[in-house]
## 1
Amino acid sequence: MKIFNIFAFALFGLTLANARIINENELEKPSKSSQQNSINNNNAADMYIDILKNIDYGNSTTYVIGHKSPDADTVGSAIAYADLLNKLEINAKAVVSGPINGETNYFFNLFGIKSPEILTKAEGKQFVLVDHSNYLQAIDGMKSARIVGIIDHHNVGDVLSSEPIYSRFAPVGAAASIIYLCIMNSMFQFQKKLQKLCS
C-alpha cells in the first residue's frame, strides 16, 4: 500500500489530468477492441521496460534527485521514479538536494513517508535527474557525475552526457505527471489499482 501513497504524494494537487486513465467500464467489460488494446499496452510495456534496462547502470546505486530547494513535485517525482527503477531490478535511491519545504513536509506527514536522505555532492556518483536538466539547479559536482536519465517538464537544459541516456521531456504542469506516464508505460497491469486510488 505504501507505493500507492507515494504515487498519491507525487501526483497530489499537481496535474493528474495530464495523464489518461483507462475508463473503469472498459476494464470491467472488455470488448474485442479493449482486449486488443490490452495486448498492445502489455507489448508496449515490455518494449518500454527493455528500453530502460538497456541503459548501462553498472553495479552502482543510481541516485534519483530533483533540483535545489526541493518542492513537492521534485521530491515526489524522485521517490516515485526510484521506486519504479527498483521494481525493474535497477538499484536506485531517491535523495534530495537540501531540506524539504513546508508543503512537502505536510505531504510526508499526511502519508507517513520518511524524507529521503540529503545529498549535496555528486562527484563519482550516478544519477537520474528529475524536474531539472540544468547544472545551475543541480547539486555541486554534477558535471563530473554520471547521468543516466533525465525526466523534466521544463526546457531542455545544459546537462550533457557522453553516452546514450534515457530522457523524457513533456510540456505538462509537473514532473510527477511524466513519472506517472513512465509508471503506466511499464506497469500496465497496475492501472486498475491506480485508477481506484486516484478516483
Note: The chain has one domain: 2-15+23-198.
## 2
Amino acid sequence: MAVKGPRKPRKTASAGKETVTSKPEASPIVQPPRGVESQPGEFQRAQHRMEEEIRFRAYQIFEERGRQEGQHHDDWVRAEAEIRAKYQRAKSA
C-alpha cells in the first residue's frame, strides 16, 4: 500500500500563488455574566441543557414541517428563539 506524503497547499489559478486553506475559527468560550457567582461548571451545565433543548425543539419543528430538507437553519433559529424566551420568562419570574 502506498504511503502518502505531507499535504501540500493548493495552488490558485489567479496569480499562481499558493494559498493554504485555514481551519474554521473555534467558537468563543461562553463565560457567565459578571457578578454571577455560581459553582464551577454550573453555568456550563445550564448552557449544555439549553442547547439540548434547542436541538430537540428544532427536530420537532422539522417533523412538524413534514421532514422537508433544506430549512435546518430556520428550524434552529426558531427553536433557539423559543427556548431562550422560555428561559427569560423563567428567569424574570
Note: The chain has a mean pLDDT of 77.
## 3
Amino acid sequence: MKSTTIVPVMLLALVLLSCGQVPTVPAPGVNPTAPAWPAEAQPLVDLARAELSKVIAATDIEVVKVEAVQWRDGCLECARAGEMCTDAIVPGYRIVLRAADVEFEYRTDQKQTVRPCPAATSAADWGKAQPLVQKAVAT
C-alpha cells in the first residue's frame, strides 16, 4: 500500500516542480549587459553618437550595429566630392545609429576618425532627418 501512494505523490511533486521557472545563469566570463561589439570600438561608438547629436536634436540615439570592417581606402569608402583618398586597406568599424526612427551610418578607422557616410544611408532616411537638422541649426 505504501508503494501505491508514493508513486502518485512523486509524480505530483514532479509536476509541481516543473511549473516553476528554471533559473538561468550566464556563462562564465560573459556579461549579459555588455554591448554586442568589441570593447576597443566603444570610444569610436561614443564619438559617432556625439557627432550625430551635433547634427540632429535627438536625445535618444540607439546603437543598431557595430561591425569590424576592412575599408579599401583612406576615405573609408565614403569619399566626398573631389576628395583624394589614399589607396590602402584601413581596418575600422561600420557603426549604424538610430535617432527619431532614422538610421545613420558612420565609418571609422581604429584610431579616432569617425565619418558620417550619407552615401551608405538611403536618401529617404536623410530626407526624413532634414527637419531635425533644420531644427537643430535654428536653435
Note: The chain has a mean pLDDT of 79.
## 4
Amino acid sequence: MRLLYRYLKENYDLAVISGTTRELNLYSQMGFTPFYKVVGGENAQYQPMYLTPENFEKSPGGMLLAKDISFLPGPVEMDRSVKTALQTPPISHRSPVFREKINKITKKLTDMTKAKRTQIVLGNGTMANDMIAAQLTRLKGTGIVLVNGEFGRRIKDHSLRAGLQFETIEVSYGEAFSYETIHEVLKNKKYSWLWFVHCETSTGILNDLSVLKQLCKNTNTMLCADCISSLGALPIDLTDVYFASGVSGKALSAYSGLAFVFYHHSISTSTLPRALDLAMYEKNDSIPYTHSSPLIEALSSALVYYNSTSPYDQIEKVYSYIRKEIELLGLRVIAAPQDAAKTIITIELDKKINSQEIGSQMGLQGYLLHYATPYLLDRNWIQIACIGALKMRDIKGMLSSLHFVLQEHRENTVYL
C-alpha cells in the first residue's frame, strides 16, 4: 500500500474503483469517496468511488501509510512535542520572554559541550563555518585543514573562500587519519590553527577530537571543529577547542534553521561583514538582528531530552542493531568499527547494484535513505542515519524492505 500510494502520487491525479459494498467501511477509512449510485446485480453490488492523494493523506489509513520515515542525517524524525512547539505563535525577538528563552538554550548548549560561550545564529551549518572562517582571518600565520570526506573538503573550501593561508592533510574518503603523521606535521612547523570535521557524515568516520585536542595543545595550535553531525549524537567536550560549529536540525532532532558557534574567549569588534561578525552576537546575547521564535521554541522542546537522560546510548544501540543486520545482508560498511561514528552507516553497494535505484525504491516503500547527493552517487553508496526519534517497528520495517529490494534487484540483474 505504501508503494502503491507513492507510485500513484508521482504519476496520477485520481484513482477510481468499483468498491464491493461489503467493504465500504474499509474504503472510506482510506479516503475513497462515492461519486455514483450502487451498480451491479443483486448478488454482486459495487459502489463507484474515487480517491485523490489529498483525501488519502487525510484518511486514517493515509495517516499511517503516507508518512515517510526519515533515515536521513537531516531532517530527522522528530518528537511530536517538537512539531507542536513550532506552531507556537511568533513573538518579538526583542521581548523579555524571547531573551529569557534564548538565554536558557544558550546555557543548555554551553553545559552540554563544556564550552564557555555559545552564540545562536539564524542560519545553517554553512553559516556557522563561514563565521569561524571569518574569525580565523584575524589570526596571523598558516593553518592546516584535515580532509577525509566531503565535509572536510567543504572546510577546505570555506578556508579558500575566506582567503586563509593554509595547508591540508588529505586522505581518501572513508580512511581514518594517522594521528602520528599529524603529530609530526605539527611538530615540524608552526601552525596557527587546525580545522577538522568531528563526525564526517559522508563516510561515517569519527575523527578523534580528544587526540587532536592534545596534539594542538602540545604545539600551541588553535583547534577548530565542525561538530555539526556529532552535536546531540554523542557526548562532546569542547574544552580547549578554539571554535566549533553545530546546528539544530540533525542529531538534536529539532528543525533546521539555527546554527551555533562555540568558543571560550571574548571576541572584540571588527570590520567583518555584520552577518559574520561574532562580536555582534556576543555583544547582544545572540540577538543582534531578527530571530525566529518558533524555531527557538522547537529547539527548546528538543533539548528537554538532554536533561535527566540523554539519547546517546539509544543512538548507539540503534546503530549497533542496524549495522549487524546490514552486515548479515552481505553489505560492506565503509567505516571500520573502531573508526565509526555511531550516528550514520555508509554502505558500499556492489557495482551491479545501482544505489540510485535502491534509494528510489526504498523511498517508494516510505523509507528515506540518504543516496541522492553527488558524492554518494559517484561512489554508489547509500547511507542510513541512526539519529532522531526512530521507533523499532520502523527500523525493522526499513531493514525488511531493504532486504526485499536488494533481493529483487539481484534476481533481476543480468550478468554478462
Note: The radius of gyration is 25 Å.
